[in-house]
User: What shape does this take?
Amino acid sequence: RGVMVLAARKSVAKKKAPKESPNFARLKPGGFLLVVSGPSGVGKGTLVASLMEQRKDCVFSVSATTRAPRGKEKNGREYWFLGEKDFRAKTKQGWFLEYAKVFGNLYGTPNHEVEGKIKKGKVVVLDIDVQGGASVRRKRPDAVSVFIAPPSFAELKRRLVGRKTDSAEAIARRLATSAIELPQYVHYDYLIVNDDLEAAKAQLIAIHDIERRRIERLSK
Ligand code: 5GP
Assistant: This one.
């Protein structure tokens, strides 16, 4: 990745400046992929929902999953709910930008949720696990990635127990996965420590806003 970033910078340096003064009002911010990852129970969903509400140029990428719908989840809104056979067939057809097994179920980002929307100048927001984050960074080095971390492992445990949605066994499994996921933060572009929800929301919005200003993504 370091080499790629360097290559990108060099190409920017080589770019010729236009002879005439540009019409700045006409330069539009370009779209990009915004990957948000972090362990289960860290408050990722709340932060992403707040970004979507505050920034209308964002579109949420609806993933496909083989897990059963929970509560009021609606097909096509939170997830595309697929049977395992259908999901496997779609992986073979190259339907996914990335997919991974998370807590025993398959999850994947359909290409159609991403391509096209970025070209239209949208910020496509992916709420995906750490394995998915790694795949996206490999395939799309231009993606912007944000890792949401708890202030500590003990605090994460406290939150998972407190939300009372999982059995003791499920909590133990989520914590074991988190212990593997947390050190992966070093591969992301940005880190948000979610100890104060309002501050964390503001930080995610700030990352969006600053990335929108990148000159290399501006289009006429
Ligand atoms: P949940 O079942 O609680 O909605 O999600 C479980 C985990 O799967 C979360 O960490 C979420 O970020 C992740 N996830 C959701 N969609 C995708 C996806 O398309 N790809 C990958 N790799 N992970 C996903």
